[in-house]
Amino acid sequence: MSLLGNILWIIFGGGGIAALLYALFGVLLCLTIVGIPFGLQCFRQAGAVLAPFGKEVRNVPGEEGCLPMAFNLIWLLVAGWGIALAHVSAAIACGITIIGIPFAIQHFKLIIVALFPFGHRLEPKE
Prior knowledge:
The chain is mainly α. Helices cover 70% and strands 8% of the residues. It is built from 5 helices and 2 strands, in the order αααβααβ. It has helices at 2-13, 15-30, 36-50, 66-95, 101-115, and strands at residues 55-59, 120-124. The chain has a two-stranded antiparallel sheet.
């Protein structure tokens, strides 16, 4: 069921477009030395956005401390709030129809990862 959900997500739920945008911004951020950690997070996000069905948000062990917190703050101020707002808008648009409710749930799940990518990751459910 997750495979079918992920295929439909890429086509109809906005996953394909979001993954392409994350990958594009990841490439642009990796062109600068300062942007490399943020670019790598964009690539991680692109993979997460491609297949969110059957996964849940988990804390990443080893990514606690001052540096990830500072990176999350920079990310939140520069890009995170806009990406989260896009997920909220897409979730509302998908949630209007009964067929789009599963896509809306996935968009809401991706908000925490969009706001705070350092220390959070989408991993398969156990």
